[in-house]
Predict the structure.
Amino acid sequence: MIKKLFRNKSDRDQVSNNMATKQIRYEALVKALHTDLYRYAYWLCHDKQVAEDLVQETFLRAWRALDSLKDEKAAKSWLITILRRENARRFERKRLDMADYEEVTIADNQAVGSEQEIENHWLREKIAQLPEEYREPLVLQVIGGFSGDDIAKMLDLNKNTVMTRLFRARNQLKDALDNEPIQRGQYNG
Amino acid sequence: MDDLQFRRSIYADPKSRDEAMQEAIDGDPTKQQFVRDIEALDDKLAQAMKVPVPDDLYDKLILRQTLDSHRQQKRKNRIQLAMAASVAFALGLTFNFMQYSTPYSTLGEYALAHVYHEEGKFSNDDQVRVSLAALNDKMATFNGSFEQGFGELISAQFCPFQGVKSLHLVFQGKSSPVTVLIVPNHEELEFIEDFNDENFNGKTLLMHDNNVIVIGDKNEPIEQWQEDIKDNVSWSI
């Protein structure tokens, strides 16, 4: 009996130890990846508030399922998969908000800014105007640093499709930049 | 590698370089320029995509998780409590079951065990006698009565017999007390007419839904006792 009590106690120590490890793991994960994840979410939905909600929901789910993440290297793609699922759920809940890309506007809160910021802002609008199926792999490649194979796996597409979309995405943006009005930014300042 | 294919590859992934591509780049200044252009484009894209992240996002994420794990902990405690309650309940049931179930499968075995259990409580020389009225008072529970006394009744008391209220009578016998048990019929124990072990003989009679069990030592004429009881007892209803 006494032995059993002792064991219980050490079990509990073990459990709280595991909890502490889990906590540290979680915090490290949040610290390392919340920036990328937020940006990815932002490019999915173009809304700061929604992006934040998505990231919150994603990390909460990640916390609950943290034990199932065995390979830390896979953490980012794991989180992105969760986030995409959350985003899809959002559309199930509220079909009305279904993205109409054309009208998407990027909040202009940088009325006063450097040349660089003005260019960024202009470019953001161009990125936002890309069709979603082109934009998503591009964001994953540029921000996430994923390879074509990784992206294909995450988006459940074949690699050739992904590469074609990446090509078209860059091609469109390059065209847009090349035809960029010289006057750009002046109306802003 | 033709030019179109080369451009497509660079557009799709500016950082990808296999040997064929590297060769193509090295040998062609136009291609080098093209790669530089696309790399510059990618830098701009990366710059533009890095939208500002809310300063407090990290803290919010940690906070949500802390609150959530607190809630989960509470839920877990409730579940543990429920489980503990279930276990206690099951233990209670088991205990009850063990209490009221026996390893004996027949009336005879149980009756013998009962006699052994009470052995020593009564002696053949006991002078205490139970009156016929007192006996019949108790017999009323079983809807029976004795018309006249027979034998010397040392003790008459109710006993739980396999959880059933029964009457336990002890008579003076030839060399040791004779036990008569009146047990309402119930299905858990198998009826057995004759039984014995190295010390005792026993017989059972089914009378009016009651098992009347007589147990005495080897000297005792059990049949005679049974006859006496049969002659004396009357059952109402």
Observations:
- The beta strands of chain B are 144-146, 153-161, 164-171, 178-184, 194-196, 200-207, 210-217, 233-235.
- The mean pLDDT of chain B is 81.
